[in-house]
């Protein structure tokens, strides 16, 4: 019986050396995929992670979301090695907490940086890798979004807006790139990572206790949702898959 659901698959994970990205890389490798671990500044962290993975052929790959040329270079590297990509996970991004009422605290520069990292960067990845995903004939893109995109609650107003844009872009590209490429968003709430500065265990536990499932969402929980999008949701595209313990219901 086949147990490696991603055997022979080529996966590229941006932000793959840390947090949800790293959990996804580990899970993909365990399922048999060859994984390109995307990094910007964390090359040593990416190499360390690769050294812990099962299987062979995993590589670090530099992807700078603000630099479309680096993204095109990454696509060429994968194209030269394999001629295709089966999975792209846009997990990289960033945020900076700014209270929603603090309009002056949300500067033009921060708004632009958040939009580039969380919207333009994923689009640039999809644009560059689209030919490789089409060559797969079973290509799938998973965009790491957030319930902030449809609840309007999150680390800043601009972050909420960026994730709403990512959700809408996923729908638009789901129409445009089918049938060869599926696109989905996975949307967590608060996850036990260092993604949001200053959010520690006590705050995560308080958030969890206010949700229906009353458990802190771990990176592995989100990674399993990403895997399900690839392996099981074969007739789903343009959709948002929520992985937040029911926090969005509050």
| Topology pattern, helix = H, strand = E | EHEHEHEHEHHEHHE
Overall mean confidence score, pLDDT? 95
Shape: globular
Q: Helix- and strand-based class?
A: alpha/beta
Distance between the termini: 42 Å
The CATH architecture category equals 3-Layer(aba) Sandwich
So how many helices? 8
DSSP strand count? 7
> What gyration radius follows from the Cα positions, in whole Å?
17 Å
Unreliable runs, pLDDT <50, ≥5 residues? none
Strand order of the largest sheet: 3-2-1-4-5-6-7
Q: What is the fourth-level CATH superfamily?
A: NAD(P)-binding Rossmann-like Domain
Q: The CATH topology, please?
A: Rossmann fold
> What portion of the residues fall into strands of 2 or more residues?
15-25%
How can the largest sheet be summarized?
Answer: 7 strands, parallel
Oligomer: single chain
Number of domains: 1
Kindly state the percentage of residues in helix. Answer: 40-55%
CATH domain class name: Alpha Beta
What does this structure look like?
With 250 residues, this protein is α/β, with parallel strands linked by helices. The protein has a single domain, classed as 3-Layer(aba) Sandwich (Rossmann fold), CATH 3.40.50.720. The chain is built from eight helices and seven strands. The protein has helices at 19-30, 43-51, 68-82, 108-136, 148-151, 157-177, 201-209, 219-231, and strands at 10-14, 34-39, 59-62, 87-90, 139-144, 181-188, 239-243. It has a seven-stranded parallel beta sheet with strand order 3-2-1-4-5-6-7, sandwiched between helices. α1 (19-30) links the parallel β1 (10-14) and β2 (34-39). It is globular, with a radius of gyration of 17 Å.
């Amino acid at each position: 019986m086949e147990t490696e659901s991603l055997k022979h698959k080529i996966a590229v994970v941006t932000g793959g050396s840390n947090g949800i990205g790293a959990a996804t890389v580990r899970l993909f490798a365990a399922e048999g995929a060859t994984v390109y671990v995307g990094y910007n500044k964390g090359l040593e962290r990416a190499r360390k992670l690769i050294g812990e993975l099962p299987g062979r052929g995993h590589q670090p790959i530099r992807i700078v979301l603000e630099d479309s040329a680096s993204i095109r270079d990454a696509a060429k590297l994968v194209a030269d090695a394999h001629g295709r990509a089966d999975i792209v996970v846009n997990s990289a991004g960033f945020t900076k907490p700014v209270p929603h009422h603090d309009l002056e605290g949300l500067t033009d520069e921060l708004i632009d940086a958040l939009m580039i990292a969380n919207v333009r960067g994923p689009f640039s990845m999809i644009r560059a890798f689209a030919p490789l995903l089409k060559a797969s004939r079973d290509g799938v893109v998973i965009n790491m979004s957030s319930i902030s995109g449809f609840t309007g609650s999150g680390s800043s107003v601009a972050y909420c807006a960026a994730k709403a844009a990512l959700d809408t872009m996923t729908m638009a590209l789901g129409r445009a790139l089918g049938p060869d490429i599926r696109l989905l968003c996975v949307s967590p709430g608060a996850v036990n990572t260092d993604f949001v500065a200053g959010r520690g265990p006590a705050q995560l536990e308080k958030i969890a206790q206010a949700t229906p499932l009353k458990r802190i969402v771990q990176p592995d929980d989100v990674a399993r949702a990403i895997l399900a999008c690839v392996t099981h949701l074969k007739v789903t595209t343009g959709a948002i898959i929520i992985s937040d313990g029911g926090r969005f219901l509050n």
